[in-house]
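Repro:
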Amino acid sequence: MNNPNSAYHIPVLLKETVDGLNIKPDGTYVDVTFGGGGHSREILSRLNQNGRLYAFDQDEDAQKNKIDDPRFTLIEANFGNLKNFLRLEGVRQVDGILADLGISSHQINVPERGFSTRYDQKLDMRMDKNARVTAYEVVNLYDERRLKNIFSQYGDLRNAATLAHAIVKAREQNPVKTTGQLNEIVSKHFPKLKLNKFLAKLYQAVRIEVNGEMEALKKLLEQAAQIIKPGGRLSVISYHSLEDRLVKRYMRDGMFEGQPEKDIYGNVSVPFKRIGKLIVPSQDEIKQNPRARSAKLRIAEKL
């Protein structure tokens, strides 16, 4: 099934991610990151007339890509509320869930969304345009310690303290309203030859905070364990180490911190078993779609 919205977003690891779901033609599946609909169309191509696909996306731009198919339902919401919204549709269990985390090509390429380091636009970075908190609030209202923690934890920036201090000092003079202003403040603290790479890390950190991405991911994984049928699959693509660690740990241990409890025989009760090894894009895919460069796919089966 061809994707007419490939210009919106090129699906990463398309075949591998959908293959990982081990699709049953009459099964019920969920694509929690609809975007341009590439993964959804591939799933639909493998379903018969009794199969069902539910997709989630909180971005109204993505909602314009809705697929006209009686087997398809688009839910305009954050996937952190997966279980409740599926119940409203009369769905309590599914055969598989697919997630392609992170940001879409479209979101990066539309200047006014404020996701890109390339354009001088208002600090926004909301995936849900109706959300209250924008990048402006994070950059201008968070105290220095909180900014440092965000840059360190979500951006893996070793000079997080320096960056946070520079931003706080600059905003004492004037509010930081645009991406261009933010770039000017922090650029002197990054190596010139790797400026774009480090700016991308900073933007990633702010974006994750604005959209509550880590909390939403934790909720998704916990709810997936509750609603995927035994033998069903969870197929997740992540793009940075923090996401991947959460996914890997939950698939292995059924928890995000600590050690899983053992019974008197030393057995561990976990919701999933991992299927195969970590999958990364081929060099050919990376050449065709540079965004795929950092993608990591993990697949698990519900026990």
